[in-house]
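Hey, can you fold this one?
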Amino acid sequence: MSRYCGHLAVAVLMGLLLVLQGCAAMHFRDYGRFSPDSKAAQAFESYQVDPEMNYYVSGSDTHPSALLGLDKRYVLEPSLWKAVDMTPSRMKELVGAMKARASMIGQGLFGFSLLDLEGKPVGIWYSIMTATTALRMKEDNGVIIYTPDLDTYDKYESKSDGGGGADR
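Sure. Predicted structure:
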C-alpha cells in the first residue's frame, strides 16, 4: 500500500509540474529577450547609426537611462519611448553623457541584441546592466519594449554618496 501511495504521489507531482510548466510557457509566450552583445555596444560606442533602424531614448534627454535602436520593420508602442532623429554626432553626445553618468555611480554600459520569440534580431539596446527590461512581441510586427525605472541612476547614487541621492 505504501509503495502504491509513493508512486501515486510521484505521478501527481509530475502532473502538477507539467501543468505549471505549461502555464508559465503560455504566460511568457509573447516575450522576446535581451542578449548581451559586444557588437551592439561597439555600434553605440563608435556612433554608428544604422539607416535600417529607428532610434529612441528613455529617461532624461541629457543622460538617458537607455538607448534603443529598433529595426524599421517593427512598430514600437509609442507612449513609452522618445523618438530621436539620430545622427553620429547626436549619438556621440548621448553615449558620452551616459558614460559620464554611469561612471559617477561606478557602473559600466553594455550593449544587447533584442531578439524575438524565435531568436531573430529586432533591435539593439545600450544601458547599464540593471536597466534591461522586457520586450513583448505583438501582432503585425508590433513590439512593446518596457522602459527602465525612472531612478535607474539615482538608486546607485544614494548608495555611493551616503544616502543623499543628489541629482547630478
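Residues 17-28, 163-168 have pLDDT under 50 and may be disordered. Let me know if you want another pass with a different chain boundary.
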